[in-house]
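cron nightly-structures :: item 1 of 1
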Amino acid sequence: MTGRHAVRNGMYTVSFPYEYGGMSEEETTLGEVMSAAGYATAFYGKGHLGDIEQSYMTNMGFDEALWTPYNQVPSMYVPRGELGPMFPTSVIPELYPKDPYDMDRGWRPDGYVWALEGTKGGKVREWGTPPNEDDYYALEGECQKRTIEFIRKSAKAKKPFFISYQPIAAHFLGTKPGDKKKTVSASILHEFLVGFDEWLPVLLKELKDQGVEENTLVVLMADNGPMTHHGPDGMVETLHTGGKGDFTEGGVRVPFLVRWPSVIAPGQVVGDIVHITDLYTTFANLAGAKQHIPTDRIIDGIDQTSLLLNGDTFSRRDYAYIYTGDILAATVKGRFKRHWVGELPGLSGAAFYDLYNDPREVMGKMLPGFTTKTMFDVMVARHNLWLQKYPNKKHPRGMPLTGLENPRPAVQSASKPRVNAKDLPFDPNDFLDFEFPYNPAMEQWGSGR
């Protein structure tokens, strides 16, 4: 969205009900860059940029949007979730006898939303009614339907368009009860992927039917590795070590496919490094919009137009900085990688990897990797010097889900403080100044339980 590492603007957390925060309006998103170049812009699917009003997709440069402010976890906040992975009484306490020791049900999210929808400058509305599961199951199809409709509308108006469709990709309770399975494994991930493959020809046919196929770049990619840590069935470690949340290759290296008839030769296999932030700068260049990229902050994305046009070995990037939250965890330079997290103190604890010979990062080397030591030290020093000049920012915080045109009573209640400020000797909104998740070791909280 910003062409920047998530740590730059504080959006390195995973949004749950309630986030009490989100993407800052001070960021310049890809939606805004493309809009400034005259493109019609749309966002559909997993927004994940938080639940405060300034982070709504319609305030992030998109002409129209249907998006989830959180990830897929609320899909389990339904009665059926009690039969599966949720803690007992965590979602529907009405199904259980009263707990005589339960004084404050602050652990129970109430007033969450499935999705929001709206247009730039217009009202934002709830889409769907939790905990109605049927609405959630219908969300993916609605995003695909609106994607096709936006293509038709833009092509008819002869207006260039940019669509960011980020599939919801998974209902964490599996396929809809009673639906026929598409795969033998019947895992959440496999069921989605096979279903998505069935829709792709519909998308490509629409581009062809509208006469814009040869003038449209289609990009398909994953957002991170599989959820291997306490995740759902079917999300397992594959070729590389690790998954979502890890700084090993299995957590950050993902499939990346592009299609642009008459511009990109088909059937190519490219081995170059492309970073997710590169899409921001590359799309801006292809759209003639580079002048709209801000110059008062660090933009991590590199223009990869040369790679798209010329193919293998024409990337302008052979490095990557890999963060875990706000911690720089590893650095890649070409075939070599150094883990910064987990190293033992002192020179002998360095962990260097040759990704050509050890792509699973199983056998960290110390002595054989000393030739790369200074290279990695210089990379980190340069990175930190830029940080001194342009420090990372925290993302703004506030009450969630405000400004909706049709909030249900529970949603309206969630957008307001849970207590009367007049009854307290302090402003309850001050808690928003603390970083989530709270760290019990922080001085202001003390070290006791």
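cron nightly-structures :: done
DSSP finds eight helices and eleven strands in the chain.
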